[in-house]
Design a protein that fits this description.
The chain is mainly alpha-helical. 65% of the residues lie in helices and 3% in strands.
């Protein structure tokens, strides 16, 4: 044996070679195990991605179905609204035509404004707008500035002059929250005048148990047997016969 402490025998080299091979084999097996783990992990990850994608597709299908239903509902709503607009437009035009028929000298734009407020107000109170027009014809001939010389005495004092197209009496104002200041200038406004007048007519119909002659007489103050009630009824029925409508007739027109 050599004196060199670093010298190796043939057996030592052979033993060391086996050890190296064992190390190489171990490293290869370790790498294979790592690769298998990565592949399996990748497969699991892909499976999760597939499941997530399928879930997303289900959500999109549900969303699409919901949108289809919403679109259908919106289409139905739009059709209903369109029908309502067409119906209201028909009412406005017919009401304006009635005004021009009853009073040919009325300014067309004024007739349109009166028709507009009459339709929406009468509808709110459940009153036939044609009945309101018949009353207007005999009260003011559709003149917003009309003012009568009528004098009415109540517990609140003496009230002079009915105003506007519906010939609203000033003492009616308290029931509608209107002020007596400025000489009741508010009453000559079309929307206010028609609202108060139709409201009083509705109350009269209620108090008279829907008897038209009684209600008209109460509105005018002349009683159900007076000429006023008969004249307004006659005008009303003439309007109903001459101008067709797309809804059922009101009970007073039967």
């Amino acid at each position: 044996m050599s004196d060199n402490k670093y010298a190796l025998s043939w057996r030592d080299l052979q033993r060391e070679g086996k050890t190296n091979w064992l190390i190489v084999v171990a490293v290869v097996l370790l790498l294979a195990a790592v690769s298998s783990t990565v592949i399996l992990s990748g497969c699991a990850s892909n499976q999760q991605q597939v499941e997530a994608l399928e879930q997303r597709l289900d959500e999109m299908e549900k969303l699409t179905s919901s949108l289809d239903r919403a679109t259908t509902e919106q289409q139905i709503t739009l059709e209903v609204l369109t029908t309502e607009v067409e119906t209201m437009s028909f009412h406005y035009v017919q009401t304006q035509n009635v005004i021009m028929y009853l009073s040919p000298g009325t300014d067309p734009f004024l007739a349109w404004k009166i028709a507009f407020y009459t339709v929406i107000t009468a509808d709110a109170y459940g009153i036939d707008p044609f009945l309101v027009l018949a009353l207007m014809k005999h009260e003011s001939d559709f003149n917003p500035k009309a003012r009568s010389k009528a004098v009415v005495r109540t517990e609140g004092g003496v009230h002079r002059g009915a105003r506007g197209v519906m010939q609203v009496m000033t003492f009616w104002c308290d029931d509608y929250g209107l002020s007596a200041k400025n000489d009741y200038a508010e009453l000559i406004r079309l929307d206010t005048n028609i609202d108060v007048g139709v409201g009083v007519l509705e109350e009269s119909l209620f108090e008279c148990d829907q008897d038209l002659a009684c209600a008209l007489g109460a509105y005018h103050g002349s009683g159900p047997m007076g000429a006023y009630a008969r004249d307004v009824e006659a005008t009303y029925r003439k309007i109903v016969v001459k101008f067709p409508r797309i809804e059922e007739q009101y009970e007073w027109a039967e």
